[in-house]
Amino acid sequence: MLLLTLLLCGAHFVHGVAAQVDETTSSCADVCRLQKDLAALTDRQRSLETGLTEAKSQIAELMSKAPTRVVFTATTAESGAIGPFGFNTNVLFKTAITNVGQAYNPSTGIFTAPVNGIYYFSFFCHSGGSRFVDLKLMKNEEFIVGIYDHATIQDGADNAGNAAFVQLQQGDRVSVRLAANTHVWGYGSVTTFSGFLLS
C-alpha cells in the first residue's frame, strides 16, 4: 500500500513538473514571438521615418525651385506737385495698384529684391514746364537711368519716362529718387513706378 501511495505521489509529481515545463516552454514561445513582433514594428517605424524625412527634403527642394512671382505698379496719388525739396529724396509711390510678392513698400517707396535675378523697372512722370525735373532710378546708392527736363516758360507741361533691366541680388533696393530743387506732378496716376522679376 505504501508502495502504491508512493507510486501515485510520484506520478502526480512527474505530471506537475511536466505541466510546469509545458507552461515555461509556452511562455518562452510567447516572449520570443512578441520580441519578433516588436522588432518588426521597430523596423517598420524606422522605414516610415526615413520615408518622411525624404518626403520633407523633396518638398523643400520643389519649393525652392518654384518660380517666385514679383510684379508691382504704384502711383504717387498726390494732389499736386511733389517738390521741390532742398535735398534728394525717394519719391513715395503711395498707392500700389499691383504688388504681387509684396516686394514694393508704399511707405518708403523702396522695392527690395526677394530673390537674385534680372528685373525690369520703368518709371514715368508728369511735370510742369516751369521747373526742372530730375528723377533717377537707383539700385542701392548706384544711379542706373534717369529722366531730366529743363525748365521752360513756353512749355506748360511735360511727360517723360525711362526703363532698365537690372540684375539684383536678394536684398538689393531699388527706388526712384527726386533730385534736390526739382519736382514732378503727382496728381492722380500720371507719375508711376513699376517693376517685375524677369528671371
Automatic annotation (TrEMBL):
Keywords: Secreted, Signal. InterPro entries: C1q_dom (IPR001073), Cerebellin_Synaptic_Org (IPR050822), Tumour_necrosis_fac-like_dom (IPR008983). Residues 1-19 form the signal peptide. It is found in: Secreted. The keyword Secreted applies. Residues 65-199 form the C1q domain. Its main location: secreted. It comes from the Eukaryota. One of its GO terms (cellular component) is extracellular region. It holds the Pfam family C1q. The keyword Secreted applies. PANTHER family: CEREBELLIN 13-RELATED, CEREBELLIN-RELATED. This is C1q domain-containing protein. It comes from Oryzias latipes. The lineage of its organism: Eukaryota, Metazoa, Chordata, Craniata, Vertebrata.
